[in-house]
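Q: What structure does this chain adopt?
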Amino acid sequence: MAKSKELKVTLLKSKFGRLKSHRDCVAGLGLRKIRQTVTVIDTPENRGMINRISYMVSVEEA
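A:
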C-alpha cells in the first residue's frame, strides 16, 4: 500500500474575530494554539479547509 501524502499545517494568526466558518476550519484541522503544527492527510476536504483559511496558516509537505 502506497503511503498517502501528508501536509504540515501551522496556525500563524489568531482565530478570534474571524468568521465562524473560518474558526470551524481551524478546529476541523485540529489546530488550537498559535504556532501549533499538525500533520493532516492531503485530501480534497483538508485542502478546501486550508484554502479557506490560507491567510491564517502556513503549509508545507511532510
